[in-house]
Structure to design on (212 residues):
């Protein structure tokens, strides 16, 4: 039991990311307003991005910028001194994609409101079944 | 007891996420979502991913909030849940 507890505490950031992800999932599924659903989707995306960025993090490491200029002549660059930049470079793309998705969803929400005068999902369903 | 700074910021992030999903005013959702993005940017600076952090600060906290407020301006501000 205490072994399990120490495992949970040692990886507390992953558990918090999972909680954040579940908040996003709840927003996507249970909320009635379409804009709230989009906000839930964005929270889900940022939770996944957080997870990926935290994989590349190392304790007692610097940001990945090499300061010594002449590394070819003797000075050694150790990989353990620098944070892994691969995951953050990948997630840079994901952030841009998430903003594009957000803008597109907002444009769709504006069009839906212009046509049906509502953004609530149940009212939209009622309106659509009448047509 | 020594508290690591990332757990404090993560707690604020989770509070902001819950608040942004549970308020009934969509403009308040927009502002809380901007605060959420800014705290996320802070978290990435703590993790040493500075490129992700300034992209999030410009794109997540800036452009998303502008899109959000513009969309609310053209639609309704009230939400039922």
């Amino acid at each position: 039991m205490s072994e399990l507890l120490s495992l949970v505490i040692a990886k507390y950031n992953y558990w918090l990311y999972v909680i954040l992800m579940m908040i996003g999932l709840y927003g996507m599924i249970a909320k009635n307003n379409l804009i709230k659903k989009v906000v839930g989707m964005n929270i889900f995306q940022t939770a996944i991005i957080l997870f990926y960025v935290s994989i590349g993090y190392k304790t007692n490491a610097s940001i990945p910028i090499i300061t010594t200029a002449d590394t070819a002549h003797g000075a050694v660059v150790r990989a353990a001194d620098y944070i892994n930049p691969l995951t953050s470079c990948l997630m840079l793309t994901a952030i841009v994609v998430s903003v594009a998705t957000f803008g597109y969803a907002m444009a769709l929400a504006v069009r839906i409101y212009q046509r049906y005068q509502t953004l609530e999902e149940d009212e939209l369903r009622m309106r659509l079944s009448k047509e | 007891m020594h508290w690591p700074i990332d757990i404090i910021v993560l707690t604020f992030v989770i509070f902001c996420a819950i608040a942004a999903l549970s308020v009934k005013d969509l403009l308040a959702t927009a502002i809380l979502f901007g605060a959420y993005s800014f705290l996320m940017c802070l978290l990435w600076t703590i993790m040493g991913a500075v490129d992700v952090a300034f992209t999030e600060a410009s794109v997540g906290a800036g452009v998303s909030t502008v899109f959000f407020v513009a969309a609310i301006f053209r639609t309704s501000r009230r939400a039922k849940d």
